[in-house]
């Protein structure tokens, strides 16, 4: 009996050890006695409250959306079917294509947790949608442009721009630096200054060019100056500092119907179907501000000529690298051709030129085309100014443009070394994308000669308007302080 009882106890103990019931180690005791930590749920962020958003129906190719959520350390935005990406309020979106758009915005806390998203929905209507209302900067027209002349432009739009203002600023070469440049004359966006950016030009201001808000691009050139003379004696005048005095020679700008068009958009290559619109925000410079005697520029890029010469690229290519002595009542003409081959990547470069190139004439079937280094043909921009040789600015003895200089000229003009060799121009794209696409599709690719802002689709751009017309003092022959 006693042996039987001991056997039962032994069996029971073995069973307990086999089930772990006899394990009394510190590790397992600690495990058994540990209480799970109490976690406090992270505070839930509210979906952002939207305080500014586009109209449900608009023709604006950009949108500004402002939002806030208490306690948020940041925000993430998603446009249409894109990905959520970090953003800040106000959030500027551009360029926007015609069609429906949705922006989803959510708040994010310090832990990276996101709130529910707020959604903003709107539709961008076409500029030319009669049902939605034609854009106010377009005018209906029954005039259809003529085909381009033989041996002339391949396809072109010509527009007028009024003078907007002058200043010693240059938002491409000296961004953010007030008064750091030589004296420039600005056309296009009336708010252009040293702080201008793609966002500011594209979303704000009016334009002195035809099309107003459809063409907020900025155009500028060095100011053309004439020696100032006493009208009675013909003697050279001096300024308050005892230095030779100078006067601005204004460009001649005709009215919108009988215009001297000063800005052209055309084809620079033979294959018109290969040309693309100029990308928004592209900055470029044509010509060299260091041009001077012994370093004359290529007249296929920048040039001068008297209007009486009747210069023509194909039949009478008479051009000058400097300002010729055009005699009153003649006009001095100036041409600046910008490069029209893009590297397809950069909107600017260190020298503001390397991201672009000029087409190359390869001859044969290929003809004029873009080089491999810059394979993307874009619309060619060119400036064409006329300056009247008038009594208030001409040289009294010869009654000509003798002695005229650019504010950028680094040498003194004389009868042996005429001024103007530093001719150059700057351009900063802020066209409405749909309007610029129409220029390409209906004028250039259709090989039409579109004058007066006529888009060849039943509409033309509205007329010019002046800017502030501000004319600062001519300091140091236009070179500034």
From TrEMBL:
**What sequence ranges are listed for the domain DUF1996?**
170-431
Chain segments annotated as transmembrane: none
Region feature (Disordered) = 27-57, 461-481
Q: Name one Pfam family in it.
A: DUF1996
InterPro entries given for it? DUF1996
Q: Where is the composition biased (Low complexity)?
A: 27-50
What this protein is called in its record is DUF1996 domain-containing protein
Organism name: Fluctibacter halophilus
């Amino acid at each position: 009996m006693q042996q039987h009882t001991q056997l039962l106890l032994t069996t029971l103990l073995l069973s307990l050890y086999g089930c772990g019931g006899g394990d009394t180690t510190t590790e397992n005791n600690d495990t058994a006695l540990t209480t799970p930590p109490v976690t406090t749920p992270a505070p839930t962020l509210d979906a952002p409250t939207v305080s500014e958003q586009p109209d449900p129906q608009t023709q604006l190719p950009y949108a500004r959306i402002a939002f806030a959520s208490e306690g948020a350390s940041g925000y993430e935005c998603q446009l249409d079917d894109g990905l959520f990406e970090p953003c800040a309020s106000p959030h500027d979106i551009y360029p926007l294509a015609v069609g429906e758009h949705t922006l989803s915005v959510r708040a994010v806390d310090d832990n990276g947790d996101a709130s529910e998203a707020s959604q903003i929905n709107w539709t961008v209507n076409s500029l030319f949608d009669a049902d939605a209302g034609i854009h106010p900067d377009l005018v209906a027209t029954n005039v259809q442009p003529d085909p381009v002349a033989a041996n002339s432009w391949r396809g072109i739009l010509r527009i007028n721009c009024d003078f907007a203002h002058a200043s010693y600023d240059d938002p491409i070469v000296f961004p953010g630096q007030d008064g750091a440049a030589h004296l420039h004359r600005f056309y296009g966006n009336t708010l252009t200054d040293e702080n201008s950016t793609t966002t500011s030009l594209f979303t704000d201001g009016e334009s002195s060019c035809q099309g107003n808000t459809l063409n907020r691009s900025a155009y500028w050139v060095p100011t053309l100056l004439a020696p100032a003379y006493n009208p009675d004696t013909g003697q050279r005048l001096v300024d308050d500092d005892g230095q030779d005095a100078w006067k601005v020679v204004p460009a001649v700008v005709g009215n919108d119907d009988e215009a001297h068009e000063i800005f052209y958009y055309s084809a620079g290559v033979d294959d018109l179907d290969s040309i693309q619109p100029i990308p928004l925000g592209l900055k470029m410079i044509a010509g060299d501000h260091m041009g001077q005697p012994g370093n004359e520029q290529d007249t296929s890029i920048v040039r001068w000529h008297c209007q009486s010469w009747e210069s023509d690229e194909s039949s009478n290519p008479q051009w000058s690298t400097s300002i010729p002595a055009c005699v009153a009542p003649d006009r001095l003409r100036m041409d600046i051709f910008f490069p029209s081959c893009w590297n397809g990547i950069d909107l600017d470069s260190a020298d503001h030129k390397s991201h672009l190139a000029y087409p190359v004439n390869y001859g044969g079937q290929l003809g004029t085309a873009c080089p491999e280094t810059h394979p993307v043909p874009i619309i060619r921009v060119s400036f064409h100014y006329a300056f009247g040789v008038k009594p208030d600015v001409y040289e009294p003895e010869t009654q000509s443009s003798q002695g005229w200089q650019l504010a950028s000229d680094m040498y003194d003009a004389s009868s042996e070394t005429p001024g103007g060799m530093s001719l150059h121009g700057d351009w900063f794209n802020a066209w409405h994308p749909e309007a610029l696409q129409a220029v390409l599709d209906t004028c250039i690719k259709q090989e039409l000669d579109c004058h007066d802002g006529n888009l060849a689709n039943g509409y033309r751009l509205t007329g010019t308007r002046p800017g502030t017309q501000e004319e600062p003092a001519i300091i140091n022959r236009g070179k500034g302080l």
